[in-house]
Amino acid sequence: MLKKKIAVGLGILSLGVSAFASDVINGAGATFPYPVYSAWAYMYYKATGVKVNYQSIGSGGGIRQIVNRTVDFGASDAPLPPNKLDEYKLYQFPAIIGGVVPVVNIPGVKAGQLRLDGYTICHIYLGDIKYWDNPALKKLNPKLKLPHKPIRVIHRADSSGTTAIFTHYLAGTCEDWAKKVGAGKAVKWPVGIGGKGNEGVANYVKRLKYSIGYVEFAYAKQNRLAYTLLKNPAGNFVAPSIETFRAAGESANFDPKKHFYLWMVNAPGKNAWPIAGASFILEAREKKDVDKKVNKFFKWAFEHGDDIAIRLDYVPLPQNLKQKIYNYWKEHGIYPDN
Question: Among 28, 62, 96, 268, which has the highest number of CB atoms less than 10 A from its own CB?
Answer without folding.
Answer: 62
